[in-house]
Structures are given as structure tokens and as C-alpha cells.
């Protein structure tokens, strides 16, 4: 009998760490904690082992296609595929409400462009009945965007990945043009908002694609709440453990029929485009 496999990106701290812990507690299979830094990843593994859990570690830099390919090769060699994939890795400089083009591009490369690489390299390993969970944000709701052309485009039933890329690149062009253009597009923290809106839109497009292909794979995005982590400088309404509850629901307990949704931190579905 094949061993089931769950993978969490950026699992060495914060919400990702708590998702790994929750999976170790309840998941009937192997749990991989991945991180781009080996020392931090292995330290996280040690903490979990001290709690009696047995996750496995693998190095994974989601912004590096070679790193993703090496991980995919490892999974292919050692397992029959992937059953749960939690795309948790992400960055935000909470001190910069308006970022430069260079900083915005780095953030979007990590938070969104990496998902396209993961889709290309890891998604072929997804088993039927597998689950993909994308960690979005309340800033991933469409209402965070101020440019009407994208408010109209991103809600299309036949939206494409190329159009989402055009949306992201249009924002990056705005970031090149200075603070006024940056704020006009999406307001403060616009680069983070754009990255999460793009993630949300990609979730719905990829779910539609899997369904059209006849694959019983669920892809959902989730707002974990305003969680007290290093990313938020310790500010927030919830602990990381509480923030992990909705992602864990999607990974473990949600019906497989729940597909292509935006889930709130309390596990109710919301309309992302209201």
C-alpha cells in the first residue's frame, strides 16, 4: 500500500510550522517540512521531534526552479506521488507599506511566480483525490484592487493564467513609475495585495482546469486570519496555531467536493470578488 504524502512549503516557522505540526498529529501519512534554509528547517524538525512528532525535512527554495526539480525528483524516487500540498511559503516586509520596484518584484516572485514553477514541476506528481491549499489573505480579495480594468478582467469565467500574469506585470510597471502609481493600483502594501489576489485568481483557474481534465483534485485558497508571526512583527488577532486551523481543515477534514473556493479563517466560504 502506498504511503500518503503531505508537503508544506515554508514550514520552518509561523503558520507553516503549525500546519506541519497539525498534520503530524492527524495525517495518516508522511509529512514533509520544507524550507529554503537547511539550518532553520532542521531546527524546526528538531523542535517537532522533541514534541514526539516525526516529520521529514527537504530543502526547497520555491523561487528556484532547480531546487523544485530536485525535490520533485526526490519525491518521484521515494513515493508514488503527492496527496496534500500546502503552498505556504511567502514574504512581506511589514515596515514597507510602499515598496520599490525591486522589492515588489522580489515579493511577487516569492508569493506568486513561485506558484507557477510549482505548478509546472510538482503538480504532475499530484495523485487523483489530492488536495492543494494556497495560503492567501484578506488582502487576496479582489476588492483590494483599485484599477477597474482588472476588477473586470479577473472575474471572467474564462480567465487565463496569461491574463493573471498581465495583471501582475501591469502592477510592476506601476511600481516602476513611483509611489503615486503604486498607490493608485492597490494602495498601501500593494505588492503584497497583488501577489495574493493573483494567487486567489490562480486557484480558481487551476481548479477549473483540473475539472475540465476530469481530475478529482481540489485546489482552494484560505485566509488564515491576522496571525501573530515574524512577518507581522508579532501583531495580530490569532496565534499561529489558530491560524493553521482553516488550512488544516482543507487538508484533512473538508469534503473532497469543496473545490475552487476562498475559505475564511473560521472555515466559511466567502465570495472573493464581492
UniProtKB/TrEMBL annotation:
Name listed for the protein in its UniProt record: Uncharacterized protein
